[in-house]
Design goal:
Number of strands: 23
Number of helices: 21
CATH architecture of the largest domain: 3-Layer(aba) Sandwich
Strand content: 15-25%
Largest sheet: 14 strands, mixed
Helix content: 40-55%
Distance between the termini: 93 Å
CATH class of the largest domain: Alpha Beta
Radius of gyration: 29 Å
Structural class: alpha+beta
Number of domains: 3
Shape: globular
């Protein structure tokens, strides 16, 4: 009977872990037979197949084709569309002409409008953009179709914005918020995004005030598969991962919800972000958010969305989204602390809690935390040394990353079981539970002041306190109820083991290891009663070794797990010298064709172009000179007015160029600077512009409609030899007739986040 109870308890733990992940995503994909007034993933995929055939970054013919297709589909729904067009330059110092797609559904009442938002451009230059953000486009197209099919007129206007140039610097959103008359009408935004090609979609709030009313409304809308927690947004706010919605919140004081999936991060911004690799269940998840929220907020009073108070929130199986005010954080912490102290006295009085056993418990639990975290950190560092090619995946999440998560989870469990096998747990489980409870409560105390979004970590503490009470009261408690008390910590905390390395990169695996130990501590009421812990340790060690072997076998690059690589041809028009160059640390057969098998560290002028990770060139080699048409540079105005010198400089490319990067030494001062009519804002507390530039970079201009770059500048009249370095880039290295660069092997793809497959011409302008 005792063995049966232990078996049932173990099944409860396993089932709880399974359920904690199972409820994060829909398990069934809606097909073409779905009712017309309901969202159908299969119908949405018809659109996705059309808009994700090729890269469609700003300025390309494919970009224009995708825009025309979206406009046509909105028109087919009976909506009148318009294109908002104009130049903008955002905080990233990237300038371009955006062409936003807009439509509006009239509501029956006059109030704030609901906006549905995503973007249609893909990342330059090779990203297909099926997930980022083709998935958002088709979610909105299919969602609006289903909404209109219901025949119900909403109370609020619904504004649809399919923005442009999000990938370049949120330019389309910036253009809309600052220049479109509809911007003042918006009360709430629902934004659909992606940073991978699968996995659950996380809800993240953007607000300048409190989130209380937003969270109440989210719960009232009742999406079926909510994946949301206030910790994720607390972390999100610390990272440089802005979306279009950030512009609405920052510049328009407009609140909103982000819905973004981050699984299979290795596909992000690559040619592998294609129609075939987008997880269908993930797209279904986006639809499961949109429909209930669209129905709710299109009829809600959006004037009442703003709030001063914040809510803690998290999701869990069966209860969906749990919310409670920040004002509860300290009372809940204090109550838990008082309960804990009370149980310590009670357990001591009952002579159940033993000082020696508690001390051993602290030694073992702290040793488990320290050893697991340190071993995971050091082993991952060693893995990076053993497999240097992993560094070529700038995302920080390798193709076999999920296997590495399993590997380190198994190793951590092996460490935990081994350490606890050294202690005689008979009748001492209650004493050993004191250490995990103490650490958890101390941690909750820290986050209550430093990271309040994580304060829901106190919830599992309450259930562990109940388990401690049961262990004190009963010499031989029923293990099955104790397993049930372990369910909350598994429901709430287990998904974080995967979320941290997936969302932040495998460098965060040590955090996952620490979480495993913390969860293990709260499972002691059950696992502490298991015999043969050393055998369990060896079993998990065996599984860990198997996972490492699997990761090793899948560490190579294949068609499905292709190696990112890079190559540019750089021509210095000032010195008439040319170079091959790469961003790669580990060369392959394709890049070795141009850089050799023993490449030399780059010695050429190495500007850091705008990119997500600030990646610099690594190797270079002299290349044959090619005749590359150089831009025409005209100084059409040079006038002294008072103590300022006014200049107008026009750069007109003579070839099909996609971008121009402009650099200038910080020694050069600029009183004013206008680029294609866009006035650069002065630096805060300064009378100058561009005073905080890094790596000498001023801005990047992404060309649309072959329009030249026009700079109108004022500088101090006595400033001599004002110098600009122009880098004019085209993405045609593999197709230009002057070069014989072969196609990549099937197990290679262009590296994202860097200037790649480009012919770059450097030209210096000196204003004497």
């Amino acid at each position: 009977m005792e063995m049966l109870k232990k078996g049932i308890a173990l099944l409860i733990i396993i089932a709880s872990i399974y359920i904690s992940f199972k409820v994060l995503l829909p398990s069934k994909v809606s097909d073409l037979s779905t009712e017309k007034r309901e969202f159908s993933t299969e119908r949405a995929l018809i659109h996705l197949d059309e808009i994700s055939k090729k890269p469609h970054y700003v300025g390309t013919n494919e970009h224009r084709r995708v825009r025309d297709y979206i406009v046509s589909e909105l028109n087919n729904l009976g909506l009148k569309t318009e294109i908002q067009e104009g130049y903008s330059m955002t905080n990233w110092n990237n300038l371009t002409k955006s062409k936003n797609i807009l439509a509006r559904i009239k509501g029956s009442e006059r109030g704030k409008a609901l906006m549905l938002l995503t973007h249609y451009d893909s990342n330059p230059h090779s990203a297909i953009g099926a997930s980022d953000a083709g998935s958002g486009v088709v979610t909105i197209l299919e969602g609006i179709r289903a909404f209109l099919a219901s025949g119900n007129q909403p109370k609020n206007d619904i504004i649809i914005l399919i923005s442009d140039a999000e990938e370049l610097g949120l330019n389309g959103a910036d253009l809309f918020v600052k220049q479109h008359k509809w911007a003042k009408d918006i009360g709430l935004v629902l934004n659909f995004e992606a940073r991978g090609s699968g996995g659950p979609s996380y809800m993240l709030i953007e607000t300048n005030g409190g989130n209380a009313n937003l969270m109440k409304a989210f719960v009232a809308a009742n999406p079926q598969y909510p994946v949301a927690n206030s910790l994720a947004y607390s972390i999100y706010k610390m990272l440089p991962n802005d979306t279009d919605l950030t512009v609405f919140r920052r510049d328009g004081n407009i609140d909103g919800f982000n819905f973004a999936f981050i699984g299979d991060h290795f596909d992000y911004h690559t040619v592998k972000d294609n129609f075939e690799r987008l997880d269908r269940n993930t797209l279904e998840h986006q639809g499961s958010y949109l429909m209930p929220l669209l129905n709710h907020f299109s009829n809600a009073n959006l004037d009442t969305i703003k709030a001063q108070d914040d809510y803690i929130y998290f999701n869990a199986p069966f209860v969906k989204t749990v919310i409670y005010p920040f004002s509860w954080i300290l009372p809940m912490l204090l109550i838990a602390l008082l309960m804990f102290i009370g149980l310590l006295f009670y357990g001591s009085k009952q002579k159940v809690l033993k000082t020696e056993a508690i001390a051993y418990g602290f030694i073992v639990f702290i040793l488990a935390l320290l050893s697991s975290g340190l071993i995971t950190f050091l082993v991952w560092k060693s893995i990076i040394l053993l497999y240097p090619e992993y560094n070529e995946i700038l995302h920080g999440f390798t193709y076999n990353g999920y296997t590495y998560i399993w590997f380190f989870v198994c190793i951590t469990l092996s460490i935990c079981f081994y350490l606890y096998s050294k202690i005689n747990l008979k009748h001492n489980v209650a004493s050993l539970l004191i250490a995990p409870l103490t650490i958890w409560i101390l941690f909750c105390g820290i986050v209550a002041f430093k990271l309040q979004g994580a304060s829901f970590f106190i919830i599992p503490v309450y259930f562990a306190l109940v388990a401690l009470f049961v262990l004190i009261r009963q010499q031989k408690p029923n293990i099955i109820p104790l397993a049930v008390l372990c369910m909350p910590v598994l429901f709430i905390m287990t998904p974080f083991i995967k979320m941290f390395p997936v969302g932040l990169g495998l460098k965060m695996l040590f955090v996952s290891a620490l979480l495993v130990v913390l969860i293990f501590g709260f499972l002691l009421p059950v696992l502490g009663c298991f015999k043969h812990k050393k055998r369990w340790s060896y079993l998990f060690l065996f599984f860990g070794i198997m996972m490492f072997c699997k990761a090793h076998l899948n560490s190579g690059f294949t068609i499905d797990t292709a190696k990112p690589n890079s190559l540019i041809y750089s021509l210095n028009a000032d010195t008439n010298q040319a170079y091959w160059a790469t961003y790669d640390n580990v060369l392959d057969s394709w890049t070795e064709n141009f850089l050799g098998k023993t490449p030399e560290k780059t010695t050429i002028n190495n500007p850091v172009f705008s990119s997500k990770y600030g990646t610099a060139l690594t190797y270079s080699k002299k290349a044959p000179l090619k005749f590359i048409s150089q831009p025409i540079i005209e100084i059409t105005n040079d006038t002294l007015i008072g103590d300022e010198r006014q200049l107008k400089i026009t750069i007109t490319p003579q070839r099909n160029v996609q971008r121009i990067d402009v650099f200038s030494s910080p020694k050069n001062s600029f009183n004013t600077f206008s680029i294609n009519g866009v006035l650069v804002e002065k630096t805060k507390d300064s009378s100058l512009v561009f005073t905080e530039r890094k790596n000498n970079r001023l801005f990047s201009y992404f060309i649309v409609d072959n329009e030249p770059l026009e700079m109108q500048i004022t500088i101090p009249f006595n400033q001599k030899n004002t110098t600009f370095e122009l880098y004019e880039s085209s993405f045609d290295l593999l197709t230009n007739d002057q070069f014989t660069v072969p196609e990549r092997d099937l197990n290679m793809i262009p590296k994202p986040f860097v200037l790649n497959d480009a012919i770059v011409v450097k030209k210096t302008i000196v204003i004497e």
